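BUG: 3D viewer hangs when loading the predicted structure for this chain

Environment: internal workstation, default settings.
Expected: structure renders.
Actual: progress bar stalls at 90%.

Input used:
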Amino acid sequence: METDGLEWLLVPVRQLVAWGAAGAMVFGGVVPYIPQYRDIRRTQNAEGFSTYVCLVLLVANILRILFWFGRRFESPLLWQSIIMIITMLLMLKLCTEVRVSNDLNIKRRSFADFDLNYFWHWSKFTDYVQCVLTFTGVTGYITYLWLDSSLFVETLGFLAVFTEAMLGVPQLYRNYQNRSTEGMSVKMVLMWMSGDTFKTVYFILNQAPLQFSICGLLQVFVDIAILLQVYLYSSYPQKPTSHTAHPASTKAL
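Structure tokens produced before the viewer hung:
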């Protein structure tokens, strides 16, 4: 009788924990970008944030959504991708507006120029939207044609999570180029690491596709590497290396 009463109490508790974990998965991924977004708005300077982080997450989450059509996974992971795409578009909009307002004399560039030297360095937010829509349309059509191929679907899933695992690499490289982490939100990276750790544990416990767990661990290692940069560049300041490359290379990656 006592066991039945205890079980009656545990069932709603387990349900609440499950809902809490699902909610953390859906919205937890966007939380790290709140302090970075606020810092950029406050300082009107986006140079410390790599907009290629947005590119990586847009590509990864679009591919993950397409993967869902071939191999259904948990709904929270699907909603997480949708929320993340919206968040990255908002980050891109802010960064573009700030960069253009600070560089009034630079030549305006657009997606329609098809100039690879200025890829992802366009002057209007609408150019980024056009690029995202083009990528979604092309990959969506290819997925539709090959949806019956299990090899294609599994490869698509791997590409989705592997691309997301490379999330911190643009920021890691930018910090290395600058020999500094100034302008980068340390809170954002700490939240990356805590979120990636939680996410990886969630993947393992819920028996998500193997690709998810492996690439989740890779993300955690990249986050740790960025935090090591924060320590090294603050404890042992270094002069930034000079770059004489194309002007586009001086922009935030």
